[in-house]
Inverse folding.
């Protein structure tokens, strides 16, 4: 029996991955990680999404201060400039996926999962070192070796864009209004931080109506 543990942040990519895995695996569980992120609001969405899909959901809480300071872990506020490689670099949390995959692998082996799934995609390659194909391949080998071949790393989105992820999710019936992306962590998406801008652009280029209520319009916002 194939059984996959999905790393679920509550955002677009990991939610689509969850829907994708429910089609391809016999059993699915989800794991979210509280790593001291400023946008902890995403954990609420992850819980709601897991409940909607009726899958087991766990949250691991990591020690405060484990990761280097970035815009996501208590450094400067998330950038509100247009989405570019330079602006979004402020949101890099070095080693995050390395730690997440290792933790998920430990949970997976303990609970009898065959795979760990992560939603890294091609749009992340230029910005996040631990989303690049060479990192994912190394992590895949390490996870297999570290579990004596029991656990595989599943990365079906590693060569596709966020636009393609959304288009796939629409065909899977993903309820994107349940997802949360904003790095500023408010109850509503701010609409102007770099990841809100990326979210808007992904829906626009996918040709899919954006169901997200935003706090601000980019043209009306002054930082």
């Amino acid at each position: 029996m194939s059984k996959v543990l999905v790393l679920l942040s509550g955002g677009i990519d990991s939610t689509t991955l969850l829907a994708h895995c429910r089609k391809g695996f016999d059993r699915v569980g989800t794991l979210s990680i509280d790593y001291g992120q400023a946008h902890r609001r995403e954990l609420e969405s992850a819980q709601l999404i897991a409940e909607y899909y009726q899958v087991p959901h766990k949250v691991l809480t990591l020690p405060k201060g484990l990761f280097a300071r970035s815009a996501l872990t208590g450094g400067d506020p998330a950038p509100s400039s247009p989405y570019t490689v330079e602006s979004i670099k402020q949101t890099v949390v070095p080693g995050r996926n390395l730690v997440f995959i290792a933790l998920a692998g430990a949970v997976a082996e303990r609970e009898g999962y065959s795979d760990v799934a992560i939603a890294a995609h091609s749009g992340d390659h230029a910005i996040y070192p631990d989303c690049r194909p060479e990192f994912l391949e190394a992590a895949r080998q390490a996870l297999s070796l570290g579990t004596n071949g029991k656990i595989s790393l599943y990365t079906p989105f590693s060569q596709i864009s966020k636009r393609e992820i959304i288009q796939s999710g629409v065909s899977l019936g993903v309820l994107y209004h349940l997802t949360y992306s904003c790095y500023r962590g408010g109850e509503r998406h701010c609409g102007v931080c770099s990841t809100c801008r990326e979210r808007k652009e992904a829906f626009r280029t996918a040709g899919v109506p954006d169901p997200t209520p935003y706090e601000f319009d980019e043209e009306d916002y002054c930082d």
Residues 64 and 87 are 25 Å apart (CA to CA). Residues 3-220 form a domain with the Rossmann fold fold (CATH 3.40.50.620). Strands lie at 3-7, 27-34, 57-61, 115-117, 152-154.
